[in-house]
Amino acid sequence: MRVAKFNIGDVVRHRVFPFRGVIFDVDAVFSNTEEWWNAIPEEVRPRKDQPFYHLLAENEEDGEYIAYVSEQNLRPDTSGEPVRHSQVEDFFIAFDPDRNAYEIPFEVIN
């Protein structure tokens, strides 16, 4: 099993599709439904044996939503801009533009 490349609080961008988001949970390997998996066209379907990330995501067309994305399809977001998702404050306490990441509340870390 691989170690996750990204951490909770990191702001990331999708490699192919025009959306970005902040990671709020990580699965060590694929942990969604087979129905969800089979809905992805086979030619772009990611491997299951890699970390998958839950994102508070946003894009201009769809607004805000929750996304589930494989590690191979994520890149660091270098904009230095916070994510404008209404649930960010439910998970994080502050945005650090120098790290381009959100701070996790202390009680969640322990």
Radius of gyration: 14 Å
Bin the strand percentage.
Answer: 25-35%
In round numbers, the mean pLDDT is 92
C-alpha geometry: globular
Describe this structure in words.
The protein is mainly beta and 110 residues long. The protein is built from three helices and seven strands, in the order E-E-H-E-E-E-H-E-E-H.
Could you outline the blueprint of secondary structure elements for this entry?
Blueprint: E1 11-14, E2 20-27, H1 34-38, E3 52-59, E4 63-70, E5 74-76, H2 88-91, E6 94-96, E7 101-103, H3 106-109
Antiparallel strand pairs: 1-2, 1-5, 2-3, 3-4, 6-7
Feature tags:
two-stranded antiparallel ribbon, 3 helices, five-stranded antiparallel beta sheet, 110 residues, mainly beta, single chain
Task: Please provide a brief summary of the model.
This protein has 110 residues and is mainly β. The protein is 12% helix and 34% strand.
